[in-house]
Amino acid sequence: MENRRGKRLISWILVLALVGAAGFYIQTHLPSLRQMGRIIQVLYLIKNNALYPAYPASLAEGAMAGMVDALDDPYSTYLSPQAYQALSENIRGNFGGIGVQVGMRNENQMTVAAPPFPGTPAETAGLRQGDVIVTIDGQKTAGLDLETAAALLRGEPGTTVVVEISREGNPELLTISLVRAVINVPTVQQRVLAEDRRLGYLAIASFSLNTEQDVGAALQTLREAGAKGLVLDLRNNPGGEVGAAVDTAGYFLSKGPVVRIIDRKGGETVLTTEGQNDGLLPMVVLVNEMSASAAEILAGALRDRAEVPLVGTTTFGKGVVQAVYALTDGAGLKLTTAKYLTPNGSDIQGRGLQPDREIKQELTSPEDYQLQEAIRLLQERI
After folding, report:
1. Residue extent(s) of CATH 2.30.42.10 domains in the chain
2. Which residues are catalytic, by number?
C-alpha cells in the first residue's frame, strides 16, 4: 500500500513539474500569468472533483500531447511508446504489415490508395481501394500525419492489428482484424506500354532504401527493350526516404540541386545529385492528390530543372521536414523543424504541385485517362 501511494505521489509530482515548466514558458512568452492560473485551476478541479479517476500518468500524457497540438501543425505530434516504436522501424521495403498502399485524401482521410498487393493479409481480408481507415487498434487516424498512421499498421509478423473501415455504400464502420505478415513491397514496377511499344512505364510506389537500385535496374531493362520515351508514375506515392528520392533523381538529372531545405532561422541546406543519367529520355510524370513529400520533391525537381511536364491532379502539398526525438519511457516527439523548396524556390507546403495538364481520375474507373494523356504528350515529343 505504501509503495502504491509513493508511486502516485511521484506521478503527481511529475504532473506538477510539467505544469511548472509550462508555466515558465508562459511567463516568459506572455504578458500575464492568467493562463498559468487556469492550468492550476483545471488540475485542482480534476484532482478533487472529477467523477472518474484522475490518473496522473494520463494527465501528463494529455498535457504533452496538448502542447504539441497547440502548434496547429498536422505533422508535429507527441508519440506514445507504441507509435514511436512503430515509427522508429527502418523503412527497408520488407517488413511485417498488411499489404496496402495508403494515402491522404478528402480532408486528410487515410485511404487505401490502390488494390491491396496480391496474396497479402489485406487482400485476404477484403480491403478495397477507396476504403477509409478510421482507426488502427483503437487509435483514430484523424489528426495523425500519414507516416505516423501508416507506421501503426506495421509490426512484427504474426501479430494482429484491428482496423475500422469506412466504405462507400456501408452506413456503419466495418471492423476488420488482420494478422501481419512479411510484405515484400514492390516499390518499383516497369513495363513497355502496350499502347505504344516505343514508350516505357516506370511506377514508384514509395521511396525506401532499395528504391534507387531498383529504379536503375528498371531503366536498364526499358532501355534494352528499346524505349524512346518514359512515363514516370508517382501517383499515390506517399513519400518515404528523402535521401532515396534525391538519389533516384540522379538517373534523370545532371549534377545540381534536387531540393532546398530552409530551417527556422532562414538557413539553407541544398541536397544535390551528382547526376548519372546518360541522356534523358523524353518524360512525363503522373501525379495526383496522394503524391506527397519525397514524391513531390522528385516531381518538382524534374519540372524545375528538366522541364518535365506533370499530368494528373494537384499533389498533396507536404513540404515540411520533421525531426524525431526520443523521450523517456519509450515515447517520442515528431516536430516540424524546416521546410522544403523546389530547386527554383517554390514552396509546396499546403499548396502542392499543380499539374501542367490537369486530368481527373476516379479511383475505380476502368480507364486510366491520366496515363492516356501522358502517352499522347510523349508521342508528340519522340
Report:
1. 94-184
2. 293, 304, 318
How much is the pLDDT for 90?
44
Q: Return the closest-CA partner of residue 136 out of 171, 97, 169, 105.
A: 97
Q: 262-271: per-residue pLDDT in tens?
A: 999 999 999 9
Cα–Cα distance between 111 and 156 in angstroms, integer? 23
Nearest by Cα to 204 from 192, 193, 194, 214: 214
Q: Please state, in angstroms and rounded to a whole number, the distance separating the CA atoms of residues 235 and 240.
A: 14
Residues of the chain with CATH 3.90.226.10: 188-381
| Contact (Cβ atoms closer than 8 angstroms) between residue 271 and residue 261 | yes
Cell numbers describing residue 100:
496496402
Q: What is d(CA 257, CA 363) in angstroms, rounded to the nearest whole number?
A: 34
Helices (H) then strands (E): counts for the chain:
10, 19
Assigned CATH for 188-381 = 3.90.226.10
Residue 50: Cβ-neighbour burial (10 angstroms; 0-12, 13-18, 19+): exposed
The CATH class of the 94-184 domain is mainly beta
pLDDT tens digits, 310-352: 999 999 999 999 888 999 888 999 999 999 999 999 999 999 9
Residue 133 contacts residue 112 (beta carbons within 8 Å):
yes
